């Protein structure tokens, strides 16, 4: 999956000029890969074993160490550039929090028309990679280089030009910085894809895998089946995505509940730990923050309004073995007559949610209606946030509300329950509004 935080065109033809010098801490902490006689790998940072307990995202970084994390993942060095009033950029702030960083370097994708078999664009990209490494190789928070994210998506995995160019880019990274391993990230583990990497991309040091839902649990088995012997990292793990969800006849995907998502975060991580393959170096939960992808709540471990979901709680338990002292609430059920239905404009429905707070404290419910995403993207590409219709909530009291169907169109009803510590559980359902004749059909 992609986390599209910057305009693509700003990256495609990035300037060959070096990035501006950063007034940041210097003094690289060497990071090495060590393999023992039994073939087991260990990541060493400053000579000490380092297991990645990380997250990817642009918000709430101060909470990562509070919940037991030690690392942050980015997708491109552009993300690191903006500085705050104290002159610090993202990697500086991560360092102050005691976090390391997998520094992402964006590599263009074949699905967007990029040609890997030579030409000026290839050279520009090589220069961009070289300059990015030169800028951040001495930063003490740099842990790994994330060279490319899902470059292979939507194209044949047996692509010698693409993997061969990544191999050349990895050579550049390693020549410029032998002290931080280079990792390339793929969209899910498939035998064909990994075999192609083994054939065309020998310079790769760590394989990053973005894996979602319970399918993530199959990753160790797939790696073993193809004979992968190098280390690997879960570079994104989280709930199953819209691409694999059940869909309504109008193509609206059914989002997993918060409680289902908790099980999905757990499945992949525990499978990797249980496999004990001597290759798993840790991983990055997705997404520490929020983003619009099919909905505003599908992947976010936090809501756009800042509340923490139970995904954060379970990741802390996976990282540390301990649950937070104050757990997020849980939605145990709801009554929504218009759920997954086609209804008439102006029709009113009484809806209700049932929820519990583990600490027994009072909960506040909030309901809202949004338009269905009209132009869903693939690969996590940036989506516009759909319109909200506040007038669709006629009234709300306690755990109940009355919803009035808007004008004909495709919509989604959301509810969140929030505890006094700003923990939340959220649920949604699609519904369709059609004129009576259309609804009857």
Q: List the total number of helices.
A: 10
CATH class of the largest domain: Alpha Beta
Helix content: 10-25%
From the coordinates shown, what is the CATH architecture of the largest domain? Alpha-Beta Barrel
Q: Please indicate the percent range of residues in DSSP E strands (runs of 2 or more).
A: 25-35%
N-end to C-end Cα span: 37 Å
What's the mean pLDDT score?
Answer: 93
CATH-level-4 superfamily name of the largest domain: Glycosidases
Biggest sheet record: 8 strands, parallel, barrel
CATH topology of the largest domain: TIM Barrel
Structural class: alpha/beta
Could you list some keywords that capture this structure?
eight-stranded parallel β-barrel, Immunoglobulin-like, alpha/beta, 10 helices, single chain, 19 strands, TIM Barrel, four-stranded antiparallel sheet, disordered N terminus, 441 residues, 26% strand, 2 domains
Walk me through what this model shows.
- The protein has an eight-stranded parallel barrel with strand order 4-5-6-7-8-9-10-11, surrounded by five helices.
- Helix 4 (120-136) packs parallel to helix 5 and helix 8 runs parallel beside helix 9 (310-320).
- The protein is built from ten helices and 19 strands.
- With 441 residues, it is an alpha/beta fold.
- The longest helix has 18 residues, at 258-275.
